[in-house]
Amino acid sequence: MPIIGRSGSRPRTRLERKHDEEPRFGSQLQERKGNGSRAVSSGVQLVEYADILAARDVIAGRLHHTPVVTSSYLGEQLGVRLYFKLELFQKTGSFKVRGVLNKLHHLGDEARRRGVITLSAGNHAQALAWGAAQWGIAASVVMPAASVRSKVEATRGYGGEVILTEDDLLETCLSIQKERGLTLVHPFDDLHIIAGQGTVGAEILEDLPDVDIVVVGVGGGGIISGVAAAIKAKKPDTRVIGVEPEGAPTMSRSLEKGEPVHLEHVDTIADGLSAPFVGKHTLAHARSLVDDMVIVTDDEILQAMALIIERCKVTAEPAAAAGLASLLAGKIIVPAGARVLCLLSGGNVDRERLKSVL
């Protein structure tokens, strides 16, 4: 597979100029809906394309430029030209490591010496453990006690300290962070993380510049924020659509309410989309840059997952299959012949779950 890289020099971005401190953002949001744009006072800043290119420089030579492939059979069934972006072939098995490497790059020496901490159901946990090891940084990860065993074992295998809890993940994480003096590497609500995830969108634009619709699974919103920031910066008419499981419609509820909400209970087979809350940054990006949000059932996800295995010969985890599920279930209105890309965000699927699918 080709490796990400860009040549040439560039000016320092806004995020780079602020990397020595936690930024306090106070600029205006550009709401890009339809053909126009309007500024709204929000106190939250959007990632710019220059930030994404800067993140791409950071991860160049360390991570894969993952392939975009077609599926003639599934495309014919849907009446579209269907493409998949295979982030399941990325280091640690998901897109998460892109944002992690970009965030760790911007930490100061003292923060690296003290160590980092995060909360995650699995993919971000593995990404931080692996990424921190590349920098020689100690990483602690707070995970749900009911986490998929394979993801827990992989996180430990990459060198991370796993802390399993049945209590509130965020509260537990913040308590340990304060006690140990660690730096929080948020799984999604951080502009360096979002910029890193935006490199997925930059690659999509390179490999499929005439894409009409990009479909992305949504948990906390980091990946769709980054992808949308990249796509809308260069192709504002391309539709970016988010997909959530009905058992964890966190972003949809937050958009409806106009502020981040915290779900008291989530229940979905797609653990990668099970974040019980979104953040102010990801909500701002979704509100400004995402064209629509749709909901799919766990059964629809499992059917899509089985078809991806059968027809595409790759093993996508449930979260990654949500995009195809939305198309198969008719949740998205797609013009005949449109070029549609689904992001297969990860392939870290538990063996027992895979057996049930097969």
Which helices and strands appear, and what pairs or packs with what?
Layout: H1 14-17, E1 29-31, E2 38-40, H2 49-59, E3 68-70, H3 72-78, E4 81-86, H4 96-105, H5 109-114, E5 116-119, H6 123-135, E6 139-144, H7 149-157, E7 161-165, H8 169-180, E8 183-184, H9 191-207, E9 213-217, H10 222-234, E10 239-245, H11 250-257, H12 280-289, E11 292-296, H13 298-312, H14 318-328, E12 339-344, H15 351-357
Parallel strand pairs: 4-12, 5-6, 5-8, 6-7, 9-10, 9-12, 10-11
Antiparallel strand pairs: 1-2, 3-4
Which percent range fits the helix content? 40-55%
Shape: globular
Strand content: 15-25%
Across the major sheet, the strand order is 3-4-12-9-10-11
In terms of structural class, how would the helical and strand content be classed?
A: alpha/beta
Mean pLDDT: 89
Tell me the distance between the termini: 28 Å
* Low-pLDDT stretches: 1-10, 19-41
What radius of gyration results from the CA coordinates?
A: 19 Å
At a glance:
43% of the residues lie in helices and 15% in strands.
